[in-house]
């Protein structure tokens, strides 16, 4: 019972369970009456929400896409902010960040399936390494406008965050950049099918 009342454990469980909430799936079903798990790329992220809902309601698709990005980012920051308000140590904060992204990518509510983790990763990075993340977000937006390939833009934005953190000597307060690398690895790993399509020239654009 002591295990279940340990504050760290409670935060870790909360981070994973909140991170697992499939907002894209919920919004698309609630407002557009479509199951994005059965259509498009079958991902629960904003890109698939936009792609699938756009087929029947373009104006609604943009709104739901934006709402999905915001909510997926917020679920990464929500537990973190509470933990920070309670003065939890940096080690706990970074563990919360990793578990939030894991929850989104391997949701307990979807049989350990999920999204690509970009928005949730952006949310936790924005709290913990804000300057590198803002630089990465600018790169993400710029690449999205120019390239119009969601996966490539996301990966370039993520890479910019990591490189900016390293170049700015933004050493994490836990004494290692390992948690940042773990989050980046999870996101890269979830994008392997996209990377293969990019190499083959088969990755679709978001118009």
TrEMBL record:
Name the chemical reaction catalysed here.
an acyl phosphate + sn-glycerol 3-phosphate = a 1-acyl-sn-glycero-3-phosphate + phosphate
Give one Pfam family, short name only.
G3P_acyltransf
Biological process GO annotation list?
phospholipid biosynthetic process
Localization per Swiss-Prot or TrEMBL? Cell membrane
Q: What's its membrane topology?
A: Multi-pass membrane protein
What Gene Ontology terms describe where this protein resides (cellular component)? Answer: plasma membrane
A Gene Ontology molecular function term for this protein is:
acyl-phosphate glycerol-3-phosphate acyltransferase activity
Which Enzyme Commission number(s) are listed?
Answer: 2.3.1.275
Q: In which pathway does it act?
A: Lipid metabolism; phospholipid metabolism
Keyword entries, A-Z: Acyltransferase, Cell membrane, Lipid biosynthesis, Lipid metabolism, Membrane, Phospholipid biosynthesis, Phospholipid metabolism, Transferase, Transmembrane, Transmembrane helix
Main localization (coarse): membrane
Protein's UniProt keywords contain Glycoprotein: no
Supply the enzyme class, top level. Answer: transferase
Q: Where are the transmembrane segments?
A: 9-32, 64-86, 93-112, 118-142, 149-168, 180-199
Q: Does the keyword Iron-sulfur apply?
A: no
| Assembly information from the UniProt record | Probably interacts with PlsX.
Q: What does this protein do?
A: Catalyzes the transfer of an acyl group from acyl-phosphate (acyl-PO(4)) to glycerol-3-phosphate (G3P) to form lysophosphatidic acid (LPA). This enzyme utilizes acyl-phosphate as fatty acyl donor, but not acyl-CoA or acyl-ACP.
Xref: NCBIfam families: glycerol-3-phosphate 1-O-acyltransferase PlsY
**HAMAP family (alphabetical):** PlsY
| Protein family membership | Belongs to the PlsY family.
Record's protein name: Glycerol-3-phosphate acyltransferase
Origin organism of this chain?
Malaciobacter halophilus
